[in-house]
Amino acid sequence: MKTTWDIFCTVVDNYGDIGVTWRLARQLVAEHDLAVRLWVDDLKAFVRLCPEADANAEQQYQQGVDVRHWPADWQGAAPAQVVVGAFACVLPAAYVEAMRAQATPPLWLNLDYLSAEDWVEGCHGLPSPQANGLRKMFFFPGFTANTGGLLREASLLARRDAFLQTPGERARFLQGLGVQLEASARLISLFAYENPQLANWLDVLAADQQPSHLLVPQGRVLADLACWLGEAHLPVGAIHQRGALTVQVLPFVSQDDYDKLLWACDFNAVRGEDSFVRAQWAGAPMLWHIYVQEENAHWEKLEAFLGHYRRGLSDAAAGALSGLWRAWNMDQDMAQAWQALQPHWPQLRQHARDWAAEQATRPDLATALVHFYRNSL
């Protein structure tokens, strides 16, 4: 009998929550031969990541995962042996009561948000006793050996390398998206929240001597982009040129195609958590738009990650990289920060590959979760 897992996902904002849980569910099925139910309260968001899914189905199987609609009026289901509440979502009261009533309660895990802050290591794996007698365990993804690691399929880096090293593969993928790339152009992907510094960055790209081709999947930053271009609306497929900069709007693609988009680009601007991790595995220079929190609490998370990521860079390159990330996230001058980064491009490219290789030496998140369960038996 396969071990049963229930993963609960509340789609709070955009696609980070469902992006992480869908990747995790698929990997647990494909690589660990588990029976996984993924409970999602917003199937429309799920369909954006898995286009073959049905937004109206109460139950469907996608890539071996039993995907269930998580209704507001919970009808009940027998708890699995492992229960994962993603990002502190509140499980249905009836489900929690069914967990409590079992002779052997399930392993209940709170899969928390990704952070590089020092306190994460001390909280990872700690229990949180509940008033009803159950125990919930904290499980933190992370970048060090004392955390739960990062989502990474076993074949991911090999597939990335094959994509980049197979003659014509990159070009064929880009052509499938309608991208005609000038030979000398730097290819940049932009997946971001609204940002007042976007115009400054685009201005300096347009004025540059080197051409750039900016690929922008459908998302929240399109309104700022349209404003810069003087357009009322930017439909999928729209292409505009300003000086040395070509801007092209892409459709919202599946997770697998988004990975390929990141692999294909020379620089990736990403947001949130899921695309942030996938950009690291792409092994190319990157820029992270961190999710804004009250009282700028997200700045501490940004600095904590930079403290890890910039190790091994020269002082000048580390300062330029940090300056760019701070400008993008703290409403500072992106034009100046981008120009300061350019002399360090070869070093940043190599560093991005080295960082991905270093993180790949640690157990991935799905494997760490499975080991945690087995050790709890």
From TrEMBL:
Protein-arginine rhamnosyltransferase that catalyzes the transfer of a single rhamnose to elongation factor P (EF-P) on 'Lys-32', a modification required for EF-P-dependent rescue of polyproline stalled ribosomes. The gene is earP. Keywords: Elongation factor, Glycosyltransferase, Protein biosynthesis, Transferase. InterPro entries: EarP (IPR016633). Belongs to the glycosyltransferase 104 family. GO terms for molecular function: translation elongation factor activity. It comes from the Bacteria. Transmembrane segments: none annotated. It catalyses: dTDP-beta-L-rhamnose + L-arginyl-[protein] = N(omega)-(alpha-L-rhamnosyl)-L-arginyl-[protein] + dTDP + H(+). The lineage of its organism: Bacteria, Pseudomonadati, Pseudomonadota, Gammaproteobacteria, Pseudomonadales. NCBIfam families: efp_Arg_rhamno. Pfam families: EarP (PF10093). This is Protein-arginine rhamnosyltransferase.
